[in-house]
Amino acid sequence: MNKLITLEEAADMIHDGMSIMFGGFLGVRNPFKLVDAIIEKGVKDITLIANDTSFPEVGIGKLIVNRQVKKVIASHIGTNKETGNQMNSGEMEVELVPQGTLAERIRAAGAGLGGVLTPTGLGTVVADGKDVVEVDGKQYLLEKPLRADVALIVGAKVDTKGNIRYKKSTRNFNPIMATAADLVIVEADEIVEAGELDPDDIMTPGIFVDYIILGGDK
Amino acid sequence: MNKLITLEEAADMIHDGMSIMFGGFLGVRNPFKLVDAIIEKGVKDITLIANDTSFPEVGIGKLIVNRQVKKVIASHIGTNKETGNQMNSGEMEVELVPQGTLAERIRAAGAGLGGVLTPTGLGTVVADGKDVVEVDGKQYLLEKPLRADVALIVGAKVDTKGNIRYKKSTRNFNPIMATAADLVIVEADEIVEAGELDPDDIMTPGIFVDYIILGGDK
Amino acid sequence: MDANMEKEYIARRVAKELKDGDVVNLGIGLPTMVANYIPEGIEITLQSENGFLGMGPAPAKGEEDSYLVNAGGAFVTLNPGGVFFDSAESFLIIRGGHVDTTVLGALEVDEKGNLANWMVPGKMVPGMGGAMDLVTGAKKVIVAMNHTAKGSHKILKECTLPLTAVNAVDLIITEMGVMEVTEKGIELVEINPEFTVEQVQAATGATLIISENLKPIEV
Amino acid sequence: MDANMEKEYIARRVAKELKDGDVVNLGIGLPTMVANYIPEGIEITLQSENGFLGMGPAPAKGEEDSYLVNAGGAFVTLNPGGVFFDSAESFLIIRGGHVDTTVLGALEVDEKGNLANWMVPGKMVPGMGGAMDLVTGAKKVIVAMNHTAKGSHKILKECTLPLTAVNAVDLIITEMGVMEVTEKGIELVEINPEFTVEQVQAATGATLIISENLKPIEV
């Protein structure tokens, strides 16, 4: 069970039409090497799931500019004008999801739950077409679980079993995305032997991680 | 904002009829000192929320034996015969909840969600009287959020702001209980200055913790 | 007052709303400035929705940490006792009512406490980010903004733009005054002495209730 | 075979179901013994529902760690690469389908794959613990038990006791045989050579489908 693979091997697993979750927040620690590999391979018609679409020249923002994305599911697209342009021209579909709802939808998929009952979005366009469930007299929006074919995440320290530690504000969506995709590849700043990380301080158990590539030197 | 209080001050905050969540698993690291203080004070009619009711002579198990508990909400009561006895005699009410459902119900309360949609318990007595919600053709049981007046939890290392680190298998329900009670008191094995814990490795943010007592020397 | 002075004036007044021990989330822009004016003796904990509590000021030049940015992508620092977590926990904190006060800007607010601040159809669709969760989950929602947009009303009888949340706003603080959203409508409780009540009303698209105890703003 | 030999026989056969890399949860009692018979070259990761992955064997006397027990409250160890987490994450793993195989005992199993293992009304009500989540969430559910309870049928046409889950069991392994729960009923696919098909059928409260490829159990 050697999980360590090359960037080329990772790219071989990413195909046209896949739904892909990307860790990161406003371009801060997207999996830069994996993104560049996807650009180089020219993967098309991606459904991109992430907090945001970064900036035009940074990380996953480049996938938008490069027109490799068919649909975006994100909470914020304002920092990448190209996302708005392609949305307005009808070239690309955009589903805007409140950030907390996005997190819970992904977690619900990972946790085997049927959905999320949240007050967020009630009475707004976010509620359009969705069921409202009443619990003890209060209304909640039923938001459905969100899975992906692939999750491409980043880790600061990753052991050879795939156990991950994140660093500071770059944890964000990575831990929950790791639970909600058929294929999970982590781009590691540093790779260490299994047993080197304190078992109390591992943030994503290695069972969620299929493969590891060495990142860094962005 | 000095959160460090004495055991006596903590006991003063616990009153008859309160619902109280207790961290721990089969008596392994219940908040032993706080439990003993509740016994000494003779608090009555407690609604006890915990994974289990421990053993008759250990931790929260003693509260059952001492007849201080009006109702138990737990996943397992088999290790404390007295729980079954009082249930069968009608002296005490027992609500059995699947362990994963218990965890999610507490988390839902902490997270401001309207409930949990889980496949667990469908077609069993656990589903009696509960709503079933269909999502994309699959059925899920709607389980409601579970809050308490008080959460009494344990921490291995706690800083003066209430930031908590748990140790090994004693983490269990403590982190989610900390999010779902009006009053949260942590019984700490060790208390350190704020800033001493690595901010990446804190498991419960101090904002959830109202007070800290020094435990240990069980 | 010029635009910068107005912003500072608003931020200073917002800061007075914060109480010792509060957990506070400040939106991008003007709300971020509130952190600079926290009164002496008041300790607040800033939450950043990308995943931490205990946000400190911007780092000195050259000391930026590429692993540590705020929800606007700007470099920040962490105060002692701060803590990092993931997005699910971050919004558990936000949606679960563990944030005492959130301060954010608005395109429109109305007398029902409805808020619009995330899109202008056909023009600007940045997305709601964490705003919908914040205004739904925080115990107190303060809108901090200029009273009008170059003379156009922003405080309205009824919002015209797509909403961020319904019945969510508690307090509106502008360069003209401090307004509480009540069941009867928007009540002007403090006024900038540079303006008259008539001027504030004229700049407002809803009929203001004037507090019997109307006071001058002190910052 | 005496009772202990039967248990070992069952545990040995269950162990052969596990594949390299599997995440496995073993129930208290007989299922726990499966860990002792994992085939050479197969590496599995044991999950403990009280909050960890990578459970190792019991510690040597005197080396018990009061912070580290399994879901039955017994002292255990952690293997290198193991990891601790809280109950919400533990059951995210369990309910979310991240456990490949769960092995547990039963009071009754029926031909629809229904399982009863958590209470006998009026007599024994220990509670379901994590069992309901485990059998609902694990990819493969193996019931490992004695074929009968002192002669009384445990494998039935229809369970009579309160259920743990509906249509959940994939495989039943007893000292008499290995049975798959199929859409048509319970199919005997392997048999302990010490017994005849007729004996197994007589000990079973449902009509067995006898596999065309019925094989002897090898352990």
SSE diagram, text form:
The complex is a heterotetramer, with two copies of chain A (218 residues) and two copies of chain C (219 residues).
Chain A: H1 7-12, E1 19-22, H2 32-41, E2 46-49, H3 61-65, E3 69-74, H4 81-88, E4 93-96, H5 99-111, E5 116-118, E6 132-135, E7 138-143, E8 148-159, E9 164-165, H6 174-177, E10 181-192, E11 211-214
Chain C: H1 3-15, E1 23-26, H2 30-33, E2 45-48, E3 52-56, E4 77-84, H3 87-95, E5 101-104, E6 108-110, E7 115-116, H4 131-137, E8 140-144, E9 148-149, E10 152-153, E11 155-156, E12 171-173, E13 177-182, E14 185-191, H5 197-202, E15 209-216
Parallel strand pairs in C: 1-2, 1-5, 5-8, 6-11, 8-12, 14-15
Antiparallel strand pairs in C: 2-3, 3-4, 6-7, 9-10, 12-13, 13-14
Helix pairs in contact in C: 3-4
What features would you highlight for this structure?
heterotetramer, A: 218 residues, alpha/beta, Glutaconate Coenzyme A-transferase, eight-stranded mixed sheet, three-stranded antiparallel sheet, 11 strands, 21% helix, globular, C: 219 residues, three-stranded mixed sheet, 5 helices, 18% helix
